[in-house]
Write a structure and sequence with these properties.
By secondary structure, this protein is mostly helical. It contains 25 helices and no strands. The protein folds into 4 domains: 139 residues, no CATH class; 84 residues; 121 residues, no CATH class; 88 residues.
Length: 496
């Protein structure tokens, strides 16, 4: 892999124009023709997006390797991967599924930044290959394409009023027409607050709306706000999905109820008491997370905030409850308890409005209860107390041994991780080794999304709680016994 070693600065900067290899097989006009009303991207990125769209999957790696040899840097490739998914893959009927080729882009970028140099190309190439898989699935399901927007003639403030009314009424066409003017004139920080609220207001699609809001804005930080218009249109289209139910604006539906009631709870949770950390409160909250309804768990959280519990402590409790749910049922629904917590925590710490921040925290609490209920509907939820987990008496000294055990006995691996960390083991070393396994063996978007969510939340947790968070969350990481995904070899072959 030394032939494709690339340092971080080389990845993130550069401005050479795209060049296409002369030996590519010819394409018919039908294969390269966009629908006449399809959205077009900025002229500097459109050719690269078209290259991703029209190159057959089996030829993609050599083609991209050639563009890199000819000077195309990392950031345009990242942007093109995101935008190709936005134009070609519909975030319906549910936000998720094939649309993960879009939602995984930021997690892959996080992995790129954190990876060792010789692995740094892997997440991007994996993401491009995954886009081709999802593009084919979308073609088989009707071949949706994002269309050029109908642009309402509105000034910035009027556009925001129109957009807010459209989102409140769940009106897709009206929202889509208002977005271009809003993006052109409204600061990104204000749009983040707007979409943080509307992407987190309901529990449809198991948290994917909030996950997409966080991922979209974080990816735009990397690729540039100039690409924001189609991304914001995609966000609105996703956030307004209500799964064929009655219009939520005219109904009292379970998916919306906690979000509406948490507005008043956020007001009541304001306190002038000194903020404090409290292990006893965390234990009490986690006990509540095993039984309380979405409303009840939000109420427990609001009462704690009003009593002076620090928001950081509340988020520790939420993280630990998500990790505990993963240990109880290492499956797709509990996985999203962690990834949605990661998204909501990012939104909480990124917006300025204090009431919105508190509402997002309460929403996260409600989501934990929703996830527990959804997981119980999918299968058995054994009684587990992550705070009472005991460390393995056999102290392991190498992260590889822990992740090897993960392939055969998840509970033993969690206890081994707890013993390793509580006896002075290096958490960053364990997580770096876990990331290596994802890059070399991961095959699913959730490998990236879940892994990066757990890794970042572990760095943000209080040191006294980090070991148990990692030990519980470890259950859904990629074991060393998993087969190699062949990605590194394919990239090396493509670069010759």
């Amino acid at each position: 892999m030394t032939a494709i070693r690339l340092a971080r600065r080389t990845l993130l900067f550069g401005g050479a124009s795209l060049m296409v290899a002369p030996w590519l097989s010819p394409l018919s006009a039908a294969e390269v023709e966009l629908p006449p009303d399809a959205v077009r991207f900025r002229p500097e990125i459109e050719p690269l997006v078209r290259l991703l769209e029209t190159t057959p999957r089996e030829r993609l790696f050599p083609v991209i390797a050639e563009t890199i040899r000819n000077g195309t840097p990392y950031v345009p490739l990242l942007a093109a991967t995101l935008l190709a998914g936005i134009r070609n893959v519909q975030p319906r009927p549910d936000v998720g599924f094939k649309f993960h080729c879009v939602m995984v882009v930021h997690a892959a970028h996080q992995a790129t930044l954190a990876a060792r140099d010789e692995h740094r190309w892997l997440p991007l190439f994996w993401s491009m290959d995954y886009f081709k898989r999802c593009q084919e699935q979308d073609r088989n399901e009707g071949d949706w394409t994002m269309r050029d927007p109908t642009r309402a003639a509105l000034g910035g403030e009027r556009a925001m009023v129109e957009l807010r009314e459209a989102m409140e009424r769940w009106d897709v066409e009206r929202a889509d027409a208002a977005i271009p003017a809003a993006v052109a004139e409204i600061p990104s920080s204000r749009l983040l607050e707007f979409f943080a609220r509307f992407g987190s207001r309901d529990f449809r699609n198991i948290g994917h709306k909030a996950i997409w809001v966080a991922g979209a804005f974080r990816t735009l930080e990397a690729i540039g706000w100039e690409h924001a218009e189609p991304v914001m249109r995609s966000l609105a289209y996703a956030a307004l999905n209500h799964s064929g139910q009655p219009n939520p604006a005219d109904a009292d539906l379970e998916a919306d109820r906690a979000g509406r009631n948490n507005v008043a709870r956020a007001e009541r949770s304001i306190s002038d008491r000194p903020q404090r950390d409290d292990d006893g409160w965390v234990a009490e909250w986690m006990a509540g997370a095993r039984t309380e309804s979405p409303e009840g768990l939000a109420e427990l959280t609001a009462n704690g905030l009003r009593d002076g519990i620090a928001p950081a402590t509340a988020f520790d409790a939420i993280r630990l409850a998500a990790a505990e749910l993963v240990t109880r049922q290492p499956a797709i629904v509990p996985l999203h308890a962690m990834t949605s917590t990661h998204a909501l925590h990012y939104l909480h710490r990124s917006v300025a409005d204090e009431r919105l921040r508190r509402w997002l925290l309460l929403q996260n609490a409600s989501f934990v209860a929703h996830f527990r209920q959804a997981a119980a509907g999918r299968g058995t939820l054994p009684e587990t107390d992550l705070l009472a987990m005991t460390a393995d008496e056999e102290k392991m000294t190498e992260p590889g041994e822990i992740l090897e055990r993960l392939g055969s006995d998840g509970t033993a691996a969690s206890r081994a991780a707890l013993g390793y960390l509580e006896s002075g083991g290096d958490a960053s070393r364990l997580l770096a080794h876990a990331r290596d396994q994802i890059l070399l063996k991961g095959n699913d978007s959730h490998d990236y999304k879940y892994g990066e969510a757990l890794f970042e939340e572990a760095t943000l947790a209080a040191p006294s709680r980090r070991a148990r968070l990692i030990a519980g969350g470890l259950r859904l990481l990629t074991p060393t016994s998993a087969p190699d995904n062949g990605l590194a070899a394919r990239i090396a072959e493509a670069f010759g």
